[in-house]
Known about the structure:
CATH topology of the largest domain in chain A: Outer Surface Protein A, domain 3
Low-confidence stretches of chain A: none
Number of helices of chain B: 10
Radius of gyration of chain B: 18 Å
Number of domains of chain B: 1
Number of domains of chain A: 2
Strand content of chain A: 5-15%
CATH topology of chain B: TIM Barrel
Largest sheet of chain A: 3 strands, antiparallel
Strand order of the largest sheet of chain B: 1-2-3-4-7-8-9-12
Largest sheet of chain B: 8 strands, parallel, barrel
Largest interface: A-B, 51 and 49 residues
Strand content of chain B: 15-25%
Radius of gyration of chain A: 25 Å
Oligomer: heterodimer
CATH architecture of chain B: Alpha-Beta Barrel
Order of helices and strands of chain B: HEHEHEHEEEHEHEHHEEEHEH
Number of strands of chain A: 5
Distance between the termini of chain A: 48 Å
Mean pLDDT of chain B: 90
CATH class of chain B: Alpha Beta
Low-confidence stretches of chain B: 1-23, 298-307
CATH superfamily of chain B: Divalent-metal-dependent TIM barrel enzymes
Number of strands of chain B: 12
Strand order of the largest sheet of chain A: 2-3-4
Order of helices and strands of chain A: HHHHHHHHHEEHEEHHHE
Amino acid sequence: xxxxxxxxxxxxxxxxxxxxxxxxxxxxxxxxxxxxxxxxxxxxxxxxxxxxxxxxxxxxxxxxxxxxxxxxxxxxxxxxxxxxxxxxxxxxxxxxxxxxxxxxxxxxxxxxxxxxxxxxxxxxxxxxxxxxxxxxxxxxxxxxxxxxxxxxxxxxxxxxxxxxxxxxxxxxxxxxxxxxxxxxxxxxxxxxxxxxxxxxxxxxxxxxxxxxxxxxxxxxxxxxxxxxxxxxxxxxxxxxxxxxxxxxxxxxxxxxxxxxxxxxxxxxxxxxxxx
Amino acid sequence: xxxxxxxxxxxxxxxxxxxxxxxxxxxxxxxxxxxxxxxxxxxxxxxxxxxxxxxxxxxxxxxxxxxxxxxxxxxxxxxxxxxxxxxxxxxxxxxxxxxxxxxxxxxxxxxxxxxxxxxxxxxxxxxxxxxxxxxxxxxxxxxxxxxxxxxxxxxxxxxxxxxxxxxxxxxxxxxxxxxxxxxxxxxxxxxxxxxxxxxxxxxxxxxxxxxxxxxxxxxxxxxxxxxxxxxxxxxxxxxxxxxxxxxxxxxxxxxxxxxxxxxxxxxxxxxxxxxxxxxxxxxxxxxxxxxxxxxxxxxxxxxxxxx
Lengths: 275, 307
């Protein structure tokens, strides 16, 4: 673990920098060893006392992460306003201090946190909205993969389709929401006012094509089909149970054509164990 | 169109690069690669000596960041500059992070790799900031050993940057410049000298920046950073949101006089202006270096590097 004295010093400074009300209010709460460690730790110089000097770091800590989260959750911030967002981030960091080496990951737990937050009383769709915004973040820099075009898809023999499954683009996220949160998300992108939302089951597909992330609502059947990991033959059977065999085959053909056109299909791989 | 080819990878040599002009890699006067400038860079390939990229911004699986870096790397020399090494942390080194850095190095083939002489978190919690270390003999030994392990793992020498700071530890016993130089010597690492950070710290802590420069081993200086600070009244804040201020240019002049031709980079990370303004700052650095070193050459005291 290296230098123990260094560790005690750094743990104390980390604790003070992350104190939600700032450094000064946190000092009276320091216990014996921490208190003695703090006394005389920072060299007094000039007009700034040690507390003011450490507060510079405390402010940078909070504002840097708040601004990163504002970049990743702009619609959430616009929905609740900057002051509530500021307080939400304060609450969030107390529960979920960053444990990643990169600010890119700092919002990973925010959707789950928002779902348990009191803000949900006024904006019950807030958790779904945060989930959508995080899916957009993930899709933006998900792994690359070359989508198949229609000509390549057509090279798969017809008799093999039933035993193959779709290899989705790595950026694809399929979301099921209790609210149509793609509405405010899209209105925000267009610069329009966000408006209120009424409950309604919503399925969304989120993915990246080239360098652009798309959010598109789909029907529940397509949403479930996008999340289906098995062979297309089994998917056709499930659909047939709901729509009838002919309609299911037709629907599946339409979807596959759309998925290929959208750049979602990166392969049709054989399934050795269909189930 | 930028016409410089890729530089060969290599370590800083132990020779006096300031005077030899050949051992230390000299890329010229570059700028940080920032998303705001992507359209102009990718659309027009402006004349830029080299780019520095923030390592962590490209430790992602795919998408636009990697496509941009791939395109830029094909046309310009690129340097990787990390912010998450946390080489001075009491926590164990993060080898998952280092594995990803190593993979990026293999892909990008940067001219060199740098990070900061600081700690960024402890107890597994990341503060996402560059915090100062106590400058003691004990810390010195600890950091040297860690830098050596990092370099062994990455299979290459790294450059360590002096960070801006807003407090000093009362139990520090070694002047900052001597500490930085001793880490570089002890670990056989290079130094990325941030002249703005030096000026900020000299002002915030009341020391002589020229003495600091004099304490640094000339042959270890592999790169220089320049940036703008904000004057908060009671302290200088390293904000990277202004042009380089006159006293920092003055200090840069002194640094060039001591270290010779050193690859120099303009950092601008907030309130980022149009690309032309950032490039103008890089060209100002070029003009100062030429003024200092060609003037010195006329007096027979130095040679310009082959570019």
